[in-house]
C-alpha cells in the first residue's frame, strides 16, 4: 500500500529550481517514502511535521496516516531549511 504524495506550491517551485540530478534524487526518495513512511520520517520539534534526508537536502512533510497522504511542505539544502521552517507557526 502506498501513500499519496501532494506538493505545496512552495515545494514545487523549489524542486523545479534544483538541478536535474538533485531533483531526481529527491523524487526517488519520496517514492520510497510513499511505500513505507514510518521507516524514513523523523519528527521535528518546533512544528508538527517530519523531515526526510535526501543527500544534502531535507524534505519537510506532513503525514496523515488515516488518509494515507504525504504533503510536501517545503524542501531545501540542509544549511538553509531549518532557518526557513522556524517561520512556520503550526
Walkthrough of the structure:
- The protein has 90 residues and is of the alpha+beta class.
- It has one domain (4-85): RelE-like (YaeB-like fold), CATH 3.30.2310.
- It is 38% helix and 31% strand.
- The chain contains 4 helices and 5 strands, in the order E-H-H-H-E-E-E-E-H.
- It has helices spanning 9-17, 20-35, 37-40, 81-85, and strands spanning 4-7, 42-43, 50-54, 57-64, 69-77.
- Strands 1-5-4-3-2 form a 5-stranded mixed beta sheet.
- Strand 3 (50-54) and strand 4 form a beta hairpin.
- The radius of gyration is 12 Å and the shape is globular.
Key attributes of the depicted protein:
alpha+beta, five-stranded mixed beta sheet, 5 strands, globular, YaeB-like fold, 90 residues
Number of domain modules = 1
For the residues shown, what is the average pLDDT?
Answer: 91
Low-confidence segments, given as residue ranges, are: none
Strand order of the largest sheet: 1-5-4-3-2
Q: Total number of β-strand segments?
A: 5
Individual helix count: 4
For the record, the CATH class is Alpha Beta
- The H-and-E topology, N to C, reads as EHHHEEEEH
Terminal Cα separation, in Å? 29 Å
The CATH superfamily is known as RelE-like
**How much helix, percentage-wise, in residues?**
25-40%
Name the shape in a single word. globular
CATH domain topology = YaeB-like fold
Content of β-strand = 25-35%
Topology:
Elements lengths: L3 E4 L1 H9 L2 H16 L1 H4 L1 E2 L6 E5 L2 E8 L4 E9 L3 H5 L5
Parallel strand pairs: 1-5
Antiparallel strand pairs: 2-3, 3-4, 4-5
Amino acid at each position: 500500500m502506498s501513500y499519496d504524495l501532494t506538493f505545496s506550491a512552495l515545494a514545487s517551485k523549489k524542486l523545479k529550481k534544483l538541478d536535474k540530478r538533485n531533483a531526481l534524487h529527491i523524487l526517488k526518495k519520496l517514492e520510497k517514502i510513499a511505500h513505507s513512511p514510518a521507516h524514513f520520517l523523523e519528527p521535528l520539534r518546533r512544528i508538527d511535521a517530519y523531515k526526510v534526508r535526501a543527500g544534502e537536502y531535507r524534505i519537510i512533510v506532513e503525514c496523515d496516516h488515516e488518509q494515507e497522504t504525504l504533503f510536501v511542505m517545503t524542501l531545501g539544502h540542509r544549511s538553509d531549511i531549518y532557518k526557513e521552517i522556524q517561520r512556520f507557526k503550526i
